[in-house]
Amino acid sequence: MKIKYFEDTDTALVELSSNEVAETREINENVLVDLDRHGKVVSLTIEHASEQADMSELAFQRLGTVRS
Predict the structure, then answer these.
(1) In angstroms, rounded to a whole number, what is the distance separating the alpha carbons of residues 47 and 26?
(2) 40 vs 61, more confident
(3) Concatenated DSSP letters for 4-65?
């Protein structure tokens, strides 16, 4: 997973996979979700990100073990 923040456009991009985007859906006027051909989320784009969240800090915490 990668999270990119573009200060010049105040846009956050959360990339969950490298799958090819087949469809983009608008959740609202500031949030777009990209889906692959199987309907799985590839990425999220958040416009006006600093209005949606505190962009000054990012924390990551992994809890427990992921089981398949």
Answers:
(1) 11
(2) 40
(3) EEETTTTEEEEE---PPP-EEEEEETTEEEEE-TTS-EEEEEETTHHHHS-TT-------S-
**What's this model's pTM, rounded to 2 decimal places?**
0.83
Average pLDDT of the chain is 92
* 21/58: higher pLDDT: 21
Q: What element of type H or E holds 3?
A: strand 2-6
Domain boundaries, the chain: 2-52
Tokens of 60: 């990551």
42 near 58, Cβ under 8 Å? Answer: no
Who contacts 35 (Cβ-Cβ below 8 Å, separation ≥6)?
A: 21, 22, 23, 24, 25, 41, 42
